[in-house]
Amino acid sequence: MKEYAYFLGCITPNRYPGIEAATVKVLKKFDIETRDLDGASCCPAPGVFGSFDLNTWLLIAARNVTLADMMGLDVYVTCNGCYGSLQEADHLLKEKPELKDWVNENLKDEGLEYKGNIEIKHVVELLYDDIGIKRLKEAVVAPLDAKIGVHYGCHFLKPSAVRGHGSSERPTILDELVEATGAESVDYKDKLMCCGAGGGVRTRDLEVSLTFTKQKFESMKKAGIDATINPCAFCHLQMDRGQVEIKEKFGEEFFNMPVLFITQLIGLSMGMSTEELGLNAHAIPMTEKFIR
Amino acid sequence: MSLVEDIEECGWVFGKDTVDSLYACMQCGKCTGSCPSGRITGYRTRRLMNKVQSGDRSILEDPDIWLCTTCYTCYERCPREVKTTDVIRALRNVAAKEGHMSKAHRATAMYVIKTGHAVPINDATKKLRKKLGLSEIPPTTHKYPEALKAIQDISKKMKFDKLVGFDWNTMNLEDREEK
């Protein structure tokens, strides 16, 4: 059995708790236990708060990392934004002793001290490295018969020199996870393009942000894709709720394409129900292939 | 101080070398060619780098600098290893300091000061959490007032509250002209 602290962030617990439920359940089936990270906050969003004030960004991110450091547990996240902030902050603190001193000086009032004894992981790493494709395949009881468009998002892979998951140009890790469920991962134009939400663009200029999303859905439709999967709660929101907003903003027809977080897809393949995975609470309803 | 010195100061967490990588830019335009935002807007990463290199402070008022989604595609592909996305974030810090921060962005920042979350919980999600067998309130700053206080203390210590224009009496944004 392995134990991790789950850094929830904002969108997972506060908008898409189905991601949280699905992730904890799937990991538990493979003997990975999840512990609460009590008192955590917003990561805070790397492209948003990092664009406003890097000192505040680093200090809040370091505080979140330190909460887990003091529990002695590695952390997992279900959002590329959270991964971006926590993993980057941890990387900077491990590389630069002067930053570590500055952070500790500013965290000591709360009784916290960053030591740097833990790792920040994306849940995709737990699925791929801790569990592995072989065990995921063995656990499939209800294989998916569907064409899936994988959306990687940005901050899981990039910057590749900091993240350390290899090239960001031709990744396969999520495609392999999708195919372990029996589904087919289908390539589409601009598969690796950003969803449009990051860097504060969704907040400041929704129309520009949704234009990214719209282009991705148009390409996925052309490729005959049934549903899209992602490893990021923020992309997930942009792609699920975004489809309703695209209809409102541009007056076009709904794409009606179901959006699933990677652990929700894996949960379905393991025989979990649409309802217990929170999939029936999405803005875009599941189609028949994803109703169990 | 020169523009690059301002960017170095705001981007000190990355280290001076990261910000100074901008001097290696040779204006090849691979960043602009790779930019998904530049495909649909007038935002041009190469032009941004050029203005920063030449110390043209008008870039701070240019709303286009806020069209980068921080996707890192240019950063990954830059043949001169300019840390573009880090430079852009630090540049935006300078812009924010000079008052160029949109109301929408100030509101997002306000939520973190008020609740600890940029996207706080609502009643519909509380209900859904319960239905899914999760705790109605997540174990975050939403559940622990002392954790929220820690975030608020950080905001004060870093003068983030002042940057955003947060009024502790009304727990809301101060009126401020949008530059």
What is shown here, in short?
The complex is a heterodimer of chains A (292) and B (179). Chain A has 292 residues and is an alpha/beta fold.
Tags for this model:
heterodimer; A: alpha/beta; Glutathione S-transferase Yfyf (Class Pi), Chain A, domain 2; 2 domains; 4-stranded parallel β-sheet; 14 helices; 48% helix; B: 179 residues; two-stranded antiparallel ribbon; 11 helices; 2 strands
Question: Residue-averaged pLDDT of chain A, rounded?
Answer: 97
Shape of chain B: globular
CATH architecture of the largest domain in chain A: 3-Layer(aba) Sandwich
User: What integer value in Å does the Rg of chain A equal?
Assistant: 19 Å
Helicity of chain B, in percent?
A: 40-55%
- Please summarize the sheet with the most strands of chain B: 2 strands, antiparallel
Portion of residues within helices of chain A? 40-55%
Pfam families (chain A): CCG
InterPro entries (chain A): CoB/CoM_hetero-S_Rdtase_bsu, Cys_rich_dom, HdrB/HdrD_reductase
Family (chain A): Belongs to the HdrB family.
EC number (chain A): 1.8.98.1
What does it look like?
Chain A: Pathway: Cofactor metabolism; coenzyme M-coenzyme B heterodisulfide reduction; coenzyme B and coenzyme M from coenzyme M-coenzyme B heterodisulfide: step 1/1. The complex is a heterodimer of chains A (292) and B (179). Chain A has helices spanning 11-14, 17-29, 49-52, 54-71, 80-95, 97-107, 123-131, 133-138, 160-163, 173-180, 201-204, 206-222, 233-250, 262-269; strands at residues 2-7, 32-36, 75-77, 120-122, 147-150, 184-185, 227-230, 259-261. Chain A has 292 residues and is α/β, with parallel strands linked by helices. Chain A has two domains: 2-122, Glutathione S-transferase Yfyf (Class Pi), Chain A, domain 2 (Up-down Bundle), CATH 1.20.1050; 132-281, Rossmann fold (3-Layer(aba) Sandwich). In chain A, the strands form two sheets. In chain A, strands 2-1-3-4 form a four-stranded parallel β-sheet. A four-stranded parallel β-sheet of chain A has the order 6-5-7-8, sandwiched between helices. The radius of gyration of chain A is 19 Å and the shape is globular. Chain B is mainly alpha-helical. Chain B folds into two domains: 3-97, no CATH class; 103-173, no CATH class. Chain B has eleven helices and two strands; from the N terminus they run H-H-H-H-H-H-H-H-H-H-H-E-E. A two-stranded antiparallel sheet of chain B has the order 1-2. In chain B, a hairpin with a 4-residue loop joins strand 1 (166-167) and strand 2 (172-173). At the A-B interface, helix 1, helix 2, helix 3, helix 4 and helix 11 of A face helix 4, helix 6, helix 7, helix 8 and helix 9 of B.
